[in-house]
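USER: For my understanding, would you kindly supply a protein sequence with its structure tokens?

ASSISTANT:
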Amino acid sequence: KMSWLWFYLPLHLLMTACLCHSIKAPTTSSQQSFKTDLFNFYHSLILADGKETTVHLLKDIPKRYYFVLEEGRAFAPFTITVTPCDVPIEWSILVHKASANCFLPAGDHDTQEVSKSQKAPSMVSTIFNYKGNSVETYMGVSSHSALYLLEFLSTERDTHITVYLTTDTTSGHLYPELPVDPRIDVIGIGHTTATLTWKHSPSVLQHRENIQYCLLVNEKHNYKSLCAAETAIRSSGMKLPPTLALSLSPYLLEPQQVMILSNSELSIINKASSGEVRQICMGTKNTYTVPNLSPSTQYYFDVFVVNLLTNASAAYTGTFARTLEEPEPKVMELKDGKAIQVVLDGKTQKFYSLQYQARHKKIQFTFQLCQGQVQVHITKNGKTVALENISGLRCFSLKGKPLDIYLVQLRSTEESNSSVKVQVSPHFHKPLCPLLPESLKIKSFSKLRTCNSVTIAWLGTQEQSKYCVYKKRIEDDQVWMELQSADRCSGPESRHKSEKVLCKYFYDINLQRAVTTETIKGLDVGTLYLFDVYLFGPSGIPVKYHSKVVKTRKKC
């Protein structure tokens, strides 16, 4: 007699044992299938109730989970939600129903007369199956005499999914709810922007403080779940934060990620060879304008409503839109002797065009690099006469005919923005391009430093030129910023009058002796100073030497 065992077996084992006990000598023809069914149940894992479970699948190897509902919950509703995180999968729900006599003690089975129908073996049947990569939810009603088996299979490659089982349908939802119409509408499109709107999630209206919307923008395709989006981004060689919901908690970004936080919006830009994936979490706003897009480019937009407490999410129906084509760039006319400064977009690396109609046979273009790196392309009547990446100051002397049309095209060769100052003139009797020294570095002499003065030196040229010295008091934490953000085209006109130290003229026919020194006095003890020297040649164009930082002595 085994009746005493019923009081010690867990419910799921009790059900399985019951299935065996209710069958007496199955026929040879049904023996194999019955053993297979039992093998499937014995080699399955328990699926937790009320908890999202991550399941890892190996290609062509099925994985099984089972669950038995607690006693007293017969004929109660339950739901199962499966979220594929990559490739399409196959999954199904099987139910194993036992006979009504299963729960009688073993002794009663021996003493009672059981009809043939009561002795019928338990039956295994498939109540649901699905194949695809969409988020799918099954809603059913439980039976106290049934054991449920979930079987998952990936036939394409190794992957993972999430599974959520719940029998508590009254205490809210793990997954935020979607509106009746879950579409995303594109209500505005520009050259570099797209404006989107979507219906509010009922969860936002009920639990505003725990719910937020996150938008994902990319150039490849839409994603049916947040899990699928994160998997795709990781497979492209980028590492994501633990969840796109982010919950605004601090974490370390990878080198290929850029974080932008402004106006309560958190943006993560993941950069990879396949393009960039932009993620924006904007709280509970249901209208958003996506900035900084590229013209004439198709983008895919996905909106996820995220539960900040559980990190569970639901996906709206994704959409796509193409930004408008960029209008033909306007060509700016250059005027004799007038310098203009041009800022170039490093992201798009588009050409900026300038046009000049010559009035004389000989002309001279002057380019002064302010920031970044710039490529210069000059054509005369449609034919290339100069193509060069410039650094510092560069002049081009060109010959032609009056009324020749010169087109200057400029573009940044860096991902960051660049800027350059351009000037053109036909007057060769007054050269626009000044003579430059061999080096534009400023040298300081450590041994000549005192508590109140420093001595600096710089190289000159063989022509008479004017040199002006400026100083600026800075703090230790300002050094890097001052040196990195320095605009090499800015002249003394951008400086405060109090920063001017002196101006002097000098030159030397012998370049070996074309050097000058200057001792700047009246400085504070133990203080950092930024020194700049400007060179003014016959053309009047200022050339800025590289800034020098020097600290006066603390003790003398």
